[in-house]
């Protein structure tokens, strides 16, 4: 392509810099420039400075795809050739890099080598160590002007990224940027995002260059601890154990700020201590003595506003209870913190405090209290268990969806308690279950509350299945959990519903299609949970399959479609055990697929389900092959490759092996040949060979005659052969070899 660069590149550069160029043309121009730079970097890189800014702004909002991939590879190669060409606009490149959702690993490596985040790395570092960073850092420093929030925010973020990559080599540049960052974090009315990014960047500078930053600690520690999103701040600021600065410098200052006379500062300090503890793990142990006495004193203080702070109401229970809550992850994974939480709770009256907060008139206080109760239940249930008899009635009274956050946290806490109590939860099921069932059946209940309610009901059923009646909630339970991601809470809830179905499978028969839909939402269930799903299917199938058959009525498309799909899914799980139920559903499916004007999606699902039934029970379905093969072929010839299509085609091939006469008509043979040939092309030679090896011997024996009839008829119509060998080979090897 090299000789043609001069012919096209000047015009492309002119187009990308032209004002009011249409968006699509801009994007295509940027992609093409990137691709030219990828294959001929020496010719394009010298002009990098002429187009890098509009190039970045053109591609920052398009979705990940192969064209974007090749364009970014090109720009990275060009930066390697001419790093100076991107210095003035490197922040725009970093912004464009950040638009990627899931770059390939090797492309991510290219970003590391030439983006702001890795100025000290490998290729670019060798080119730029002597001149790029001295030139670039002052530019970033000059852009730390909060009057221009967007630019300042990007520059701040970029400095933090550079610091984490350069480590101690950042030392010469701390003095260039730190004064401006300290000024920004102390500035009144700084935008929240800028304040947060500034705090993170200061923390990162302190992490890699503590000797340079520590002397200025007093200048920024107060606004730093007041920064919003403390959790994000501390995790991002350190990215490692020590968080922001060496704990020996930082922890005493936080300890001094544990003064409940200053509620806001004290609250931020407690959050910060908890977050740092989670980052440091066992390394936190030497500093426990620095903060523990003050924490105990705070927890033991009177908490009601009228007893303590007469001039300002207590905003929430968080300020007195946040530290134990922030320790929950460490308590579950570190013996040191397990001992710490035991020590804290044994020296304080935290459970008494919690009991009072749970009955407070302020919803915010109750909300935080129930969140803490759930956290403490997970972290140290031994200390919570003696209080359960007193806590459960209060939890039941707060299952009121008029106060959504309170109700949500109370619901979650009940579920956590149930998992810890096991069968001992039985006396309390009647206290909370009626309200939970009412909430899950209530119209317009918020999504998060619905999901937590469903999880808690499932957990109650898991530990006390005899006490929980399925009929009252199974349908909304299934619809609530069908869209949440796989996790431990979902796992325990589904185990509970399976146990309940085992106890009372009749309770789910009318709504089993909803349960199966919810089961299908799992991406990767554990093996024992998968076995539970299978046993639930077996337990209810004899009662449920006739109901599915009755719902195969295309007058009600949505219901019919779901019933059809469910039958296919069940068939693939049941295998040969589906045999007794084929006669219940197959006649209706054959009628639907032959019905004129059937909706396209219903036709496709019907064809897939018939194919699946034929795959697991070919002897029962194959005799009817001639009744549905033509609409079956036309229904599936245009859908994309997927697992459902794969299983359906496997089924039709197995049925032809059992009943080849069902597809002998010339037009049907031609139609099936076209589809099967296309399927073979799509799956590839190796997959096709594996696929065809599964066909029964009867199908493979019909080799020369059937193969010759199909191929010859088809090639005559096309007036050209496919170059296939007709004789001496089986239908599925010679036709498609």
UniProtKB/TrEMBL annotation:
The keyword Transport applies. Its main location: cytoplasm. It comes from the Eukaryota. It is found in: Cytoplasm. One of its GO terms (biological process) is protein import into nucleus. Pfam families: HEAT. Keywords: Cytoplasm, Protein transport, Repeat, Transport. GO terms for cellular component: cytoplasm; nucleus. PANTHER family: IMPORTIN BETA. This is Transportin-2. It comes from Dissostichus eleginoides.
